[in-house]
Amino acid sequence: MSTKSSESDTETNIEAASPTNFIREIIDEDLRQGKNDGRVVTRFPPEPNGYLHIGHAKSICLNFGIARDYNGACNLRFDDTNPTKESTEYVQSIRDDVRWMGFEFEKREFYASNYFENLYSFAEVLIQKGLAYVDSLNAEEIRAFRGTLKEPGKESPDRNRSIEENLDLFRRMRAGEFKDGEYVLRAKIDMASPNMTMRDPTLYRIRHVEHHRTGDTWCIYPMYDFTHCLSDSLEGVTHSLCSLEFQDNRALYDWVVANADAPCRPQQIEFARLNLSYTVLSKRRLIQLVEEKLVNGWDDPRMPTLQGLRRRGYTPEAIREFCDRIGVAKADSMVDAALLDFCLREDLNDRAPRVMAVLRPLKVVIENYPEDQVDEFEMPYHPEDESMGKRVVPFSKVLYIEQDDFREDPPKKFFRLAPGKEVRLRYAYYITCTDVIKNGAGEVVELRCTYDPATKGGWSEDGRKVKGTLHWVSAAHAVKAEVRLYDKLFTKENPMDFDEGGDFKDFINPDSIEVLPECLLEPSLADTPPEAKVQFERLGYFCADTRDCKPGAPVFNRITTLRDTWARIERSQNKS
RNA sequence: UGGGGUGUCGCCAAGUCGGUAAGGCAACGGGUUUUGGUCCCGUCAUUCGAGGGUUCGAAUCCUUCCACCCCAGCCA
Question: Which residues contact A535 (CB under 8 A, 6 or more apart)?
Fold first, then answer.
């Protein structure tokens, strides 16, 4: 349970209002001027053609966050106007993900496909006004007629078709009289516009395919630029927030809303989408990773998809905090993945129970400890939060410690175990290493130690200084487990930067996953439920895997490591 | 001289009427500590893409230039 932030001091009774940004300032000004009768309505409009990722989380937090803070509403609207790419499987996963992120949409779940009939009427309005026409040019011809960035386009021969003929043709398009591609409905705007999106954009195309929601009711489907603005208007959206690449489309957005006699005129505002270092967020690349089996599916714990992050052990709280901290602006940017990591640790530090697990076991025999004795130590689940309770951990003659915690020839500032050195076993006893046993290959396979019975609980009355404290696990009581260590998926900050040539796949981190099949856990972890998050003391935060974790046979994913100052010291020592 | 955008510390990002550069992450010091964790304390932009100009005074105004991003789907 979070023990964070008490009530805000004065007028704001809104919990956790997000920091301000240029969009909120626009809304504040609109409110001041009494626009939209003081209503604020936003929307999160995914196309159900893929899984949501952390970039979508930014948009979700922005839109739902504004609705929450302004006492408004945010609609979840599926922009499902291209049936060839969409499926109910995707809408289901999107609904799950938005809920998981902590946002509600029970009464505010919409589908562009529900507006097909309205949209069709709006199209007829445009035709009646002489602002849309049915064009028989094929796709290649339309492209050729469109002109280039620097040269104006040419008008289609069909551009001046009569209103009656346009209406007739459009109705027959709907009736299914034509084949795919035979005709399209276009807006009649300006083939010479310097804004490419205004050069008579396509409004409807013929597609004889089944739609995941409307079945075969329709064989013509509206395009984004026609659908989106009108859907916003139909829903009474006041502020339609989208990413930067739609800036040019805003002119068309306004044109359609104004000319189709839409019920209201929402305002489109663009912001920069999220880029995160050491990963990719474009749908195309993500699909590639999955299809080429460079990861194990959409919910691979290394994926930046919400499903992947969730399985990895990221919390919605951490992701929301991250989205609040990165801000919203119009400059293209690349956010440091370290910030996400920070938000994660900040959240997990408060909430994850502390437990002990040895990932790479090294056997330790306490020579002066009675053969069949077992001490039971009561250990708190959290050093700063008593409310999390305690559990009992058994201690016996044969233990395991981490291989990294012993050095036969310790470097400077290494204050873990070494021959002749004394360390503390957390909450247990002080032990001193008396002997090192090696195998034929010269590898250390076992340590012989003695313990000081007077240090029970892990402290000494004589005030003796012991710098190192190690985690441990009793051999006789340990639970075996598989633990998967994950690291960043790419070795390059921006895998999409090809200045030095290559492909983003060239930068995949070969060590992004390491599976340790024989880890040893303290017995309390035997039946960890899937998705539970804990801190393995001194190692990091770990999450019981949702797919593979079984009672009695736990499987853990490393969410992230703890800050490791020693690793840093050692690195700088090796340099000098 | 196609159009639309953006440029403030290594990474994000405030900076409302011009008044003398918030904050966070990262990094680096130090303290506390039975996690080399947490926590605490401190350091970290004479400078705002560059050059001119206006002004007592400019990141904010004017001007020239430079760099980067987006647009030629019957995708969204």
Answer: A348, A349, A352, A353, A354, A355, A541, A542, A562
Task: Return the pLDDT at A8.
Answer: 35
Q: Which residue has the higher pLDDT, A15 or A198?
A: A198
Report CA Rg, chain A.
31
Which amino acid, residue A185? L
A435 CB-near residues (< 8 Å, 6+ apart): A419, A447, A448
C-beta atoms surrounding A497 within 10 Å: 12
Report the run of H or E that residue A339 belongs to, with start and end. helix A337-351
DSSP symbol at A272: P
Catalytic residues of A: 47, 273, 283
Structure tokens at A507: 């930068």
Name the residue with the least CA to C1' distance from nucleotide B75. A82
A176/A178 Cα distance (integer angstroms)? 6
Q: Is the CB of A63 under 7 A from strand B?
A: no
pLDDT of residue A7: 34
Provide the b/e sequence for A367-380 (b: ≥16 CB within 10 Å): eebeeeeeeebebe
Q: What is the mean pLDDT of chain A?
A: 95
What pLDDT is stored for residue A16 in this prediction? 58
Are A320 and A61 contacting, i.e. CB atoms less than 8 angstroms apart? yes
Paired tokens of A224: 């984004």
Strand B nucleotides below 7 A of a protein CB? 2-8, 10-16, 23-26, 28, 34-39, 68-76
| pLDDT value at residue A573 | 86
Half-sphere exposure of A109 (CA within 13 A, CB side): 12
Q: How far apart are CA A73 and CA A75, in angstroms?
A: 7
What number of residues does chain A have? Answer: 576
**Separation of CA A277 and C1' B27 in angstroms?**
18
Could you read off the pLDDT of A105-152 as tens digits, one per residue?
Answer: 999 999 999 999 999 999 999 999 999 999 999 999 999 999 999 999
pLDDT of A96 reads: 98
| Assigned token pair, A326 | 């990165």
How far apart (Å, rounded) are the C-alpha atoms in residues A420 and A53?
52
CA→C1' distance for A483 and B10 (Å): 34
Nucleic acid strand B within 7 Å of A529 CB = no
Global pTM reads 0.95
**Is it the case that residue A267 has pLDDT exceeding 50?**
yes
